[in-house]
Target: SAM-dependent methyltransferase
Amino acid sequence: MDADHLSQRLAIVASYVPQGARLADIGTDHAYLPVNLAKNGVIVGGVAGEVVPGPFKNAEHEINREGLSDLITARLANGLQAIEPADHIDTVAIAGMGGALITQILTQDFDRLAGVSRLVLQPNVGEMTVRRFLMTHGFQLVAEQIVAEDGHTYEILVADRKAVPEQYDEETLRFGPYLLAEHNDIFIAKWQRELARTSEVLRQVESAHEVPAAKVTELQTKIQQIKEVLQRVGA
Ligand code: SAM
Model:
């Protein structure tokens, strides 16, 4: 992968960045996403944020190599602290991290999202946590995609600011309103794998010396939810 040849996962993230956006890509690593979008004339400016010095140097190098330092600023910063008011950022992308970390990044400097109208998030795991964050922080899911690449399954969640977002039940938060409605082959395969994995975890937990009742109930609920959804979509 490079800035001219994004992975399918990152290409989908890119496709949800609006034309003319001012983008902050948080956890940018090589800055492939903002560089790609700037080269293709999609973004008119932005920030490539990184908290680790090595990847930050990679981002800086990539931006300079492509002659894009007037458009994209690389910043060594923790999460949304990479965003300054003068950047006029309206779109934030966070891709390739766990859902808990993405949620932590968005929560800990939430005020930095003041001018942001769109979030494009790609949690590697923990999508439910991210959906719950969006629903409770004034962001409405407007699109979801699921992609299988290199033996992994990734979900891309796109949300726009909305004063009163739709309130989802636990099932919708787990499976995703758009992904559930579409229930394509990748979605079904993901949840069949998750059912097998969770059933195995339950078996191990139940065979423990002291069985943790709360954990057993949590796993049983999840298994029941997955079975119901798979049955409903005819899988
Ligand atoms: N976003 C790119 C992608 O999707 O291909 C790179 C993903 S890479 C697996 C995750 C990056 O996030 C790493 O470079 C890591 O240093 C960075 N990161 C992790 N926590 C961060 C934080 N709190 N603030 C900024 N960057 C962070």
Observations:
- The CA atoms of residues 12 and 156 lie 7 Å apart.
